[in-house]
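Obj.: predict assembly geometry.
Materials: sequence records (below).
Method: joint structure prediction, all chains together.
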Amino acid sequence: MQATVRVRRHNTEAPAVHGKLQEFKFDVSENTTVLDALIKVREEIDGTLGVRCSCRASICGSCGMRVNGQARLACKTKLTDVSRDGAPITVEPMGNMPVIKDLITDMGIFWGKIRQVEPYLQPAGPEPKGEYIASDESMAHLVGVMNCIMCGACVSDCTALEVDSTFIGPAALAKAYRFVADPRDGATQDRLGTLNERSGIWDCTRCYYCVQVCPKGVAPMERIMKMRDLAMEAGYNNTSGSRHTKSFAKSVKKGGLLNETMLAVESTGWLNVPGQMAQAPIGIKSLLKGKLPNPLGHRIKARKHIRRVFDKVEGESK
Amino acid sequence: MFEHDLLIIGAGLAGMRAAVEAVRRGANAAMITKVHPVRSHSNAAQGGINAALTDRGDDWTDHALDTIKGSDYLADQDAVEVMCSEAGQALIELEHMGVIFSRDDQGKLGTRRFGGQKAARTFFVGAITGQAMLHVLYEQVIKANVRVYEEWFVTSLIVEDGVCHGAVALDIRNGELHTIRAKAVVMAAGGAGRVYEPSTNALICTGDGYALAYRAGAPLMDMEMVQYHPTTLASNGVLISEAARGEGAYLLNSKGDRFMLKYAPEYKELASRDVVSRSEQTEINEGRGVNGCVLLDMRHLGREVVEKKLGYLQEVAHDFVGIDLAETPIPIRPGMHYMMGGIKTDVNGATPLPGLYAAGEVANVSVHGGNRLGANSLLDTVVFGRRSAVAGIEYGTSVRNMPKNEDQRKADQARIRQLMDRPKGPRPAAVRRELAETMHNGVAVFRDQKGMEAAAARVREIRSEYEKVSIDDKGKVFNTDLVFALELGYVIDTAEAICVSALTRKESRGAHYRTDMPRRDDANWLKHILVRAGDDGEAPKVDFSPVSITRWQPVERKY
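Observations (raw structure tokens):
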């Protein structure tokens, strides 16, 4: 089987290739990974190719890169997974990070965000003589997050980070969850308070890319959503995200449909005068064009059933 | 020029444990590492960490005896006593740091049973124990704000008047060479898997620490003791953890027989690794293999155990061979995995070279002797990582004046310049592959005089070919081509030491099994073999040292 791999070169010391897509062709087997192919290039064809890699078994997290536009671990991606009928594949460095050379990115920003969430256990009270007593269930749950190998794939493809570099981002927030959900950690309240602030848990746009590209099933977005719930339960309600969530649920529970006008008003907050002023022009324009939804909301006939769904879900979560 | 009390080379478990200890004790410590700390190969340790906890009815002396028996009596018993008696404390400390160890019904730490041990004393996190520990130690490194020279590659140790004073290193990011002075150096640079092909080890395991110490004049001890892990993938050498057998997996030959019942009636699949690897190789050699492999069967464990307790193995099996372990036995074979041999140290990590300490796989304390038990390596890293930092700092307080010259950096600069300027020659990767295959053919599970001599001769030839290798990349920014060429030098030095040691030991013990001398010979060979680099072009020098026997007299080893 023949494969064609196009690699985005970035090498300011080699102007001949810098910025170009360089094409390599070789014979491969059905189990050949993208990393195998890149190593072959580096070892046999062009030793100047820059790529980080080490374990070859998706545990060290070195070889995050974009394959056909999507962040992946090169060692975990078979050429046959990404190329139908031998179509060329394109390999580029991860996004949302500066490139140092070829496929090697500067992960300084990534680690800076990890540091930002105080990523170490902060137990309450003195240490016990033996181990902390904790349920196997709680530890097994954390394995799902500790599976994170810090490869950067989620950060690379995060659409919120793309427009707001201050966002803590999926990897660091998943790391934060590892402590928030650890029964041994005593700083949960403070952590949630900090994460509730600007650039934290409410800045995720729920685009699902991080869940999709994570090679280890960490599902960062789901951890972020869980922390939103926990933050609200912990009493952190003074955010538009929290108000949005509550308003959304309230109107659907009441009438079976979303009341869009009240959602906008309530998310901003009744007492937030500048906020309300800021969105007033949109409201007025919509009204004049006959596009303003009825502020009293609509009701559907089957709203009783919707309420039953709410009762069941809310009952279960208690 | 940079200056520290303690310079730690390597940022895996041993290095980070040393760094955290040093900072806790107020020392000015730094780590230097060629990859980001969480990329270190400690990640790949899957199965667990051993400790005998008295509140579980276990006794550290039982753990010590299992370890010593596993070592085929080559381990130093005083060192094993230190490791096993400190294990409980080291384990609890890791738990307090935040490692998410699996629990039992009461919420206490849960165990699984590992090879060569009578009791279930292996504590674990699924099949990602190493990763879970490494990331937690990195959390502690962040908390302690340890200085890390990240993506720096060490080119030499600085030795003046027979004392180690630091290292010279290349900042891979920009190609600059720097002198880093230190009152004491802890070598924690990990293993040497790339000396063999195939190997379970990561691409970064190129024997840097062995070679740096060897060149600096420190002796390497028992380098012939190379562990072949019984369960590795044929295609790429990737490891399938002993945790599989710990959870009850069977080894089957082509006839579907559990052949370990024959070789190790009592321990069966959980005999020590050298025994299981030899048994598998015998089955394969005698025609009862399946395409050069035997089968590891987990079907009877059920899907829940496979996916919950061995999830990472399921992932690897799926990714590399497309097998569902709950449905189909996976073909595996013995593969090079671990170096029991290493830089000779005492129980405090001190090497015979003043100022140089060593811990982790690169060191030989010696607690593993001829064969390491599964889940003793993680324990080794944290116990002796900590101790080497304590001893290194203590030693450093007596160091008054450190030389300030840049001689070593200049010499390394010249060496690198020469390599960069060299006209077209052999490619380093091709030379490395040939050497590694030579080692796999000549100094593997079964060895004999003829095979080892052939390997040693080829390694000598490759050493002279190395003088001609050339690289494509002439740039300064992230020149990994240059780094690989320098690593190849380390690979060759390590291979040389392994060959010399292996040819010296005229008996079979632990992982060193000679078909031409199949008996253990305690009368003549119950001793360590030390190899020192020869002076300029001369042959390496061989020396011996006694094995410490405290309370367990050597007896015949049966599983």
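Conclusions so far: Chain B has a mean pLDDT of 96.
To do: check interface contacts against the pulldown list.
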